[in-house]
Design goal:
This protein is α/β, with parallel strands linked by helices and 307 residues long. The chain has 2 domains: 2-87 and 275-292, 3-Layer(aba) Sandwich (Rossmann fold), CATH 3.40.50; 89-267, Rossmann fold. It has 9 helices and 12 strands. The chain has helices spanning 9-22, 88-106, 109-117, 141-150, 175-184, 205-210, 228-236, 258-261, 277-292, and strands spanning 2-6, 28-30, 40-45, 60-63, 82-83, 134-137, 157-161, 171-174, 188-191, 215-219, 240-245, 265-267. It has a 7-stranded parallel β-sheet with strand order 8-7-6-9-10-11-12, with helices on both faces. The chain has a 5-stranded parallel β-sheet with strand order 2-1-3-4-5, covered by helices on one side. Helix 8 links the parallel strand 11 (240-245) and strand 12 (265-267). Helix 1 (9-22) crosses helix 9 (277-292). The longest helix is centred in the first third of the chain and has 19 residues, at 88-106. The model has no long low-confidence stretch (mean pLDDT 97). The chain binds glyoxylic acid (GLV). The site of glyoxylic acid (GLV) has 5 residues, from loops.
């Protein structure tokens, strides 16, 4: 019985230490080393090996990331449980990124940096936090951590998800029919949705048109959520004021891609949050213990929903 890790080797070495300490009976291999493939019961991966039939006794596929779209679920045999990464460091990192983006956009940093670098000194009226409505699409663990940390600033908070959620202090909208009302009340829209067939391309011209004039957008989910040309058109038309993007359709984007140079886009290279190695290894160990005891694991993906 063994576990195979396939992601960044440097972080894998840290996982190996935790496993060696807590489960010395469970050999830990870092891809491309696999040991005897027939002994591999568990995988912890960003993207699985191409040929999973080489691992006939695999029992659980753990995602190293919060998202599982990069796994391509269609390639993972249907009987195998796939488990999302739910661990505190990932949620804390995402909450920091969202708070940083929202504060920067609320305080008009994209405008002011451009202004002062261009030799200007124009001041804009200061909008109170109470007048800056922040909405998050996708209300999972990451969004809930971000909402909790945004609350003390006084922003009116709302959220939208496919199925209804109740979060204290947050106006929650659900389903396609409530999406327009949600969007109309977002001065800053943050996307933390899972990427599925239903959400691909959702940040598009139709959606932007429903946001209030001057709204700003943050995408810290997946590049596939955003139609980049529509974003740039909405920024250039002056309907949207700015965007913060941590993800792009192709990563890295081409040097000539306008997302790299557009004056009102702040781009970061998929660093919004990262799985914390120790907490992640511990979460996977706890799930392995549940699995071995015949109990339900935390974060099992519902294949029909795609997250
Ligand atoms: C990173 O993008 C993740 O899904 O954890």
């Amino acid at each position: 019985m063994a576990i195979l890790y396939k992601s960044e080797a440097r972080r894998g070495a840290e996982w190996a230490r935790v496993f060696a300490e807590k489960r010395p009976d469970l050999p830990f291999y870092i891809w491309p080393e696999t040991g005897d493939p027939a002994a591999v019961r568990y995988m912890a991966v960003w993207v699985p090996p191409d040929d999973l039939s080489e691992f006939p006794n695999l029992e659980v596929m753990f995602s190293i990331g919060a998202g599982v779209d990069q796994l391509d679920l269609s390639r993972v045999p249907a009987h195998l449980p796939v488990v999302r990464m739910i661990e505190p460091a990932l949620a804390a990192g995402m909450a920091e990124y969202v708070v940083w983006s929202v504060l920067s956009l609320h305080r008009q940093m994209p405008f002011y940096l451009q202004e002062t670098r261009g030799g200007g000194w124009r001041q804009q009226p200061l909008r109170e936090a109470e007048a800056c409505r922040v909405g998050i699409m996708g209300l999972g663990v990451l969004a809930q951590a971000a909402l909790e940390r945004l609350a003390p600033f006084g922003y009116p908070l709302s959220g939208w998800s496919r199925s209804r959620r109740a979060i204290p202090g947050v106006t929650c909208y659900a389903g396609a029919e409530e999406l327009p009302a949600f969007l109309a009340a977002c001065d800053i829209l943050v996307c933390l949705l899972p990427l599925t067939d239903d959400t691909r391309g959702m940040l598009n011209a139709d959606l932007f048109a429903r946001l209030p004039q001057g709204a700003a957008v943050v995408n810290a989910a997946r590049g596939g959520h955003l139609v980049q040309a529509d974003l740039i058109a909405a920024l250039d038309a002056g309907h949207l004021s700015a965007a913060v993007l941590d993800v792009t359709e192709t990563e890295p984007p081409e040097p000539s891609d306008p997302v790299r140079t557009h004056k009102r886009i702040w781009l970061t290279p998929h660093i919004a949050s990262m799985t914390g190695w120790r907490s992640a290894a511990e979460v996977v160990l706890a799930n392995i213990a549940r699995h071995e005891a015949g109990q339900p694991m935390d974060g099992v993906v519902d294949r029909s929903r795609g997250y």
